[in-house]
Amino acid sequence: MEYRYLGASGFKVPVLSFGTATFGGKGDIFKEWGNTEVSGARKLVDICLDAGVTMFDSADIYSMGAAESILGEAIKGRRDKVILSTKATFRFDDGPNSVGSSRFHLIRSVENSLTRLGTDYIDLFQLHAFDAKTPIVEVLSTLETLIQAGKIRYTGISNFSGWHLMKSLAIADQYGYSRYVANQTYYSLIGRDYESELMPLGLDQGVGAVVWSPLGWGRLTGKIRRGQPLPEKSRLHRGGDIGPQVSDEYLYRVVDVLDEIAKETGKTVPQIALNWLLQRPTVSTLIIGARDEVQLMQNLGAIGWNLTKEQVAKLDMASAVIPSYPYWHQTEGLRERNPPPV
């Protein structure tokens, strides 16, 4: 297993991490993604640890806390062998202060996550979304208090825009607070918005990408083809309407090239899609999910080899899209002064 530094920190994480959104199966959305219980989770954790996948990612809202609780049971007795990553900010219950990044909500969320996970510290704690109602100074000072108390080790964000993240980093520098070192971001071969602003920011400011849904919201599993119905079990059946939207023709164009490279390499479509991501700038780790051991073992086959430059170029071309303004203008204007990061 390859380990990479998490952003500009001195902390290393495996290039593949395991996501626990399939644990629990509670609620309309999460029951469609998976319903792994403790016994199944232990088996998946065993496989991960044997392969060197030591980082496990969760969130308080995954099955309303059940995912964290199941993960906590699955790692019991081996806390020192794992890296725990979790998140909070989204609404957890109906209480007026049970949402956002206020001091009240963050402290309570961390305390509750620690209890469910069965640990006294979280290695990487991330804000699940930007909260425009809470002053950034309040957010950062709260996180610093939790760091100084030893309850969290490193901090990151998720689903922030570029200016949200940059303003937070500037304020952290101003007050001497710990900087965010991770950006848990959506990025895939068919979802390359991250490259426009967040990737250059990550390169400049030392923020590593912790990539969620690297298989494009379940579209790059190798089971979606032209003229074929969706597989019986897919997150696209529930939640696809709120996930990243992709036109059919664009998806099929990318899958066609993936199929071509699969024949050349003997690798699977998801393995190729994951390997492409691992060659992108700023990427520290990819969060892979699995309903069962078969899926997990297949995803683990994404490492230990690399696509050729020619194969990467084919995938780049097939998945290329016109960037939003002002990035298309910058590309055509001062390219020699502002080269793209990739």
Could you characterize what this model shows?
There is one protein chain. The chain is an alpha/beta fold and 342 residues long. It contains twelve helices and ten strands. The strands form two sheets. It has an eight-stranded parallel barrel, surrounded by five helices. A two-stranded antiparallel sheet has the order 1-2. The radius of gyration is 20 Å and the shape is globular. The relative contact order is 0.13. The mean pLDDT is 93.
Shape estimate: globular
Count of strand segments? 10
- Beta percentage is 5-15%
Q: Order of strands across the biggest sheet? A: 3-4-5-6-7-8-9-10
Number of helices: 12
CATH topology: TIM Barrel
Gyration radius, to the nearest Å? 20 Å
Mean of residue pLDDT values: 93
What is the helix fraction of residues, given as a range?
Answer: 25-40%
Task: Give start-end ranges of low-pLDDT stretches.
Answer: none
Supply the number of structural domains: 1
Element-level helix/strand string: EEEHHEHEHEHEHEHEHHEHHH
- Counting helices, strands and paired strands, the structural category is alpha/beta
